[in-house]
């Protein structure tokens, strides 16, 4: 039985995972309302909240002085905010000493990489290993506020980065675009809400860096294009055009994500396609990736909505499924830890 702890940013989260039966429970305390008035996460406030929330969450999980059936502790050790990671690791190590249990470090991004397979394990815990092997090689896309990464898991279950952003991440571009539009934090969901009632063809935004088949993402030009467009519009014009602008802006982000993914599908043989990370909760992106998988006859695995953001369930699951990615022994905080070494580009 694994107890997982996640504190990379502004979510305090615990989860219990049993390899024999799946997720036993998840407990999360979100800080969105606290940071909303600042328009983004304030690291010092986030760290303070983790300190305040971990012990109540532990009690909610039915644990305190007694470790119960827990046999291992897993904790996020990077990437993330240094102070937040430090508190999570201190909490994990304190429990490990008190309960005389081993503790392992999990890469937050590798947690996202494996999160689409949590549902597969839930369906058949005993048959998971064989089912997962049948999905390899796997092509996955992680889309979040800080990262945009295409990666593969090969037949030997080795994870390799194939493409990543050279500037802004997709989620960052959506949040910054929302801020330019005067929308409240968090901005990405606000853009999605308005885009649902708009026409993406009304406003043309740059959709990718050239050449299109380069193995990298770039979203900074998209944000700049939006700023220049808004400078030419009056307040009344913007109000009337807001749904169409959001639809076009969001569509440009999704077009680049899907376009790069399509190129890599065409460049190699894969059996499955995955989507994860905070932005993967966007319904338009989920639908576009599902269509792409269907077009190329790939098994499609999209992280469940509750496992797209910062959550401890994916940390617990990665501690079980991604043995090669674990940090053991006297591991340290790694705020800028990479998902994996990038592959050489051809």
UniProtKB/TrEMBL annotation:
Organism: Thalassobacterium maritimum
EC annotation from Swiss-Prot or TrEMBL: 2.3.1.234
Enzyme class: transferase
Cross-referenced InterPro entries: ATPase_NBD, Gcp-like_dom, KAE1/TsaD, Peptidase_M22_CS, TsaD
MF annotations from Gene Ontology: tRNA N(6)-L-threonylcarbamoyladenine synthase activity
Spans traversing the lipid bilayer: none
Pfam families xrefs: TsaD
Keywords carried by this UniProt record: Acyltransferase, Iron, Metal-binding, Transferase, tRNA processing
Gcp-like domain location: 23-317
Domain of life the protein comes from: Bacteria
Protein name: N(6)-L-threonylcarbamoyladenine synthase
Reactions catalysed: L-threonylcarbamoyladenylate + adenosine(37) in tRNA = N(6)-L-threonylcarbamoyladenosine(37) in tRNA + AMP + H(+)
